[in-house]
Amino acid sequence: MSNKKNNVILEEYENEFSYKKSKTNLNIEFNRIAFIFFVFLVISIIYSIQLLHLGSLKIQNEIKPLITKKNYRADIIDRNGNYLVKTVSSIDIGINPVEVIDKKKLLINLKLIFPDKNYTEISKKLKKNKYFYLEKKITANNYEKIMMLGDKAIKSEEKLTRIYPQKNLFSHIIGQIDNDNNGISGLEKSFDKKLKKIKEPLQLTVDTDIQFLIREELIKFHSIFRSKGSTAILMNVNNGEIISMVSYPDFDLNKRETVNDVNFINRATKGVYELGSVFKTFTVAAGLEEGLIKTDTEFLNLEKRLKCGKNIISEYDKKIPSDLTVEQILIRSGNIGSVRIGQKLEIEKLKLFLEKIGILSKIDFDIEEVGEPIPFRWGKCKLATVSFGHGITTTPLQLAKGYAIIANGGFEIKPSLLKKTLDNNQNQKRIIKEGVSTKINEILRKIVATKEGTAGFANIKGYDVGGKTGTAEKAIVGGYTRKAKVNTFVSIFPTSKPKYVMVVLLDEPKTSEDYTYKYKNKSGSYKGTPFNTAGWTSAEVAGKIIEKIGPILATKYIEN
User: Fold this and answer.
1) What is residue 90's predicted lDDT score, i.e. its pLDDT?
2) Which element (helix H / strand E) includes 63?
3) Of 480, 500, 475, residue with least CA distance to 490
4) End-to-end Cα spacing for the chain
5) Which end of the chain is more exposed for a tag (fewer CB within 10 A), N or C?
6) Is there a common fold for 76-170 and 209-251+266-418+433-556?
7) E-assigned strands of 405-478?
8) What is the architecture of the domain spanning 209-251+266-418+433-556?
9) Which of 419, 366, 373 lies closest to 396 in space, CA to CA?
10) Residue 79 — φ and ψ, nearest 5°?
11) 479 touches 209 (CB < 8 A)
């Protein structure tokens, strides 16, 4: 009797052994079933891996910023690529208690993912049956974990958040958005549609480092002179690029508070002021442009006082001589001499010049918060006062533009906050004779560099600074007050080949008893502010700013 039940045969191959089963009908069927099972198992594993992969991709895609979302806004960067505004994507996790099947199970699962949360409070919220947020701005890791729970009561909401890394630094330039992601001020408003459309960052002309240093000086002197507010504008005279524009007080854009206080206006663009003697430069430039005067033209026997209607015009400094050349009138900031030059020009010629350089009309600018000069009726007395900067208003930005045109050889420019390819006067229209610029620049340098000038505190060694001071009494109902002044200093540098114009304005500064001045045009120092004039306030601030930013400008923009 053969042993048919023994289906195992031992075969020897050198030192290796293997066992073979004899092929019975039972084993054949078993192998077929096992093979089919194996195939299905492999297919199932592959399918599961694909599902997990797709799920993972979905999670990754959801956690990324979605630029196709309607509430997306493009980032904003400075001229060097530093982020001023950044849009980031975040996901909030909420729970709808009404849809929870097993609250106990849900709490256990949540505790495994978020062990540090207060689950007593979460239990109370679940009992109230009202939708609540469990986790805002969830991490990618925790998001994946909580979604894998597969609980329909757990809801995910993607949000795009606008953050401002520089906080207060560019608040007046950038502006604000509302809760619906719409711009309501500054560049956020004026470029609202563009920011929602473009994918690449919007690049500005401003420099974060320069902006920081200028703001620091304004804050310091805000405390020293106890001013109501201040502003400073630094602009390239050749192409209108604004490198810095600070208005103080300012505000933190991240707090998204509605700023209603009038003290928080953008003084650089929105503030409309009588600016005083800085207008004398325009009067002299207009006279040179028309060929009615030369820098050495003499005005003899100038009065100390003039009466025009009910107004009395007098010199601010009784020591100003009666005989002055045009150059000396501007250096010594003579009121009467400026009036005489204005009278030579007459209304139409002076008005035309001021219109050409953009002083009299509302400026076209990149942000909507711009002030409009107060209109007035021209007459003989108005001509006289306008000649020395009294009874005429404009904004600091327009003042900077006017001085830039004079400094750059007479070419028209458009101040801009947007970085673009701008030629240095190559394709620009000349609106003032070239010779006028050269002569004015030389006088502005003497205002700073000579003892007769009014801006000696801005004479910073190595930077060839020129400029003009302006001290103006504030207008009130019925006239003017000597208690409140607007002190302004406009500087250009270097005067030999102008690159920059800078306006520094202090709104209602006061004298300081403790501040120590170091003389630039003579040795020694002086403690305390003897006069509340631009020469002792705004010019000092401008000088300190140029000391700080000068080395950066010399290295960063050496080719510009």
Assistant:
1) 82
2) helix 25-63
3) 500
4) 110
5) N
6) no
7) 466-476
8) 3-Layer(aba) Sandwich (3.40)
9) 373
10) -65, -20
11) no
Q: Is residue 429 scored above 70 in pLDDT?
A: yes
- pLDDT band for 181, please (50, 70, 90 cuts): confident
Yes or no: say if 347 and 277 are a contact pair by the CB < 8 Å rule.
no
- Cis geometry, peptide bond prior to residue 396 (ω within 30 degrees of 0): no
Handedness of CA 87, 89, 95, 96 (dihedral sign): positive
Strand partners, 427: none
Tokens read off for 256: 């998204």
* Residue 32 confidence class, pLDDT cut points 50, 70, 90: low
The tokens 């109501």 sit on which residue? Answer: 228
For residue 482, which amino acid is it? R
**What average pLDDT does the segment 390-419 reach?**
96
Residue type, 416: S
Alpha carbons 465 and 243: distance in angstroms, whole number: 18
Contacts of 148 (CB under 8 A, 6+ apart): none
Cβ proximity of 388 and 409 under 8 Å: no
Give the span between the Cα atoms of 307 and 303, in whole angstroms. Answer: 10
Are 243 and 206 within 8 A, CB to CB?
A: yes
At residue 235, the pLDDT reads 97
- What CA–CA distance (Å, rounded) separates 333 from 279? 10
Question: Six-digit token pair at 415?
Answer: 């101040």
Higher-scoring residue by pLDDT: 336, 10: 336
Q: What is the residue whose two structure tokens read 């003042």?
A: 399
Q: What are the residues whose beta carbons fall under 8 Å from the beta carbon of 204, sequence distance 6 or more?
A: 76, 77, 78, 79, 84, 173, 187, 417, 418, 419
Residue 24, token pair as written in the block: 């019975």
| Helix, strand or coil, per DSSP, at residue 129 | coil
pLDDT in tens, 8-31: 333 333 333 333 444 445 455 545
Q: Residues 465, 458: contact at Cβ < 8 Å?
A: yes
- CA-CA distance, 530 to 243, in Å (whole number)? 33
Amino acid in the structure at residue 57: L
Assigned CATH for 76-170: 3.90.1310.10
528 three-state secondary structure: coil
What are the domain boundaries of the chain? 8-58, 76-170, 209-251+266-418+433-556
* Amino acid in position 97: P
From 192, 185, 156, select the one nearest 171 (Cα to Cα). 185
Inter-residue contact 88 to 158 (CB < 8 Å): no
The span from the CA of 186 to the CA of 367, in Å, is: 5
The tally of CA atoms less than 13 A away on the side-chain side of residue 387 is 28
pLDDT of residue 349: 97
Measured CA to CA in angstroms, residue 529 lies from 83, 201, 515 at distances of 40, 46, 7
- Length of the chain counted residue by residue: 560
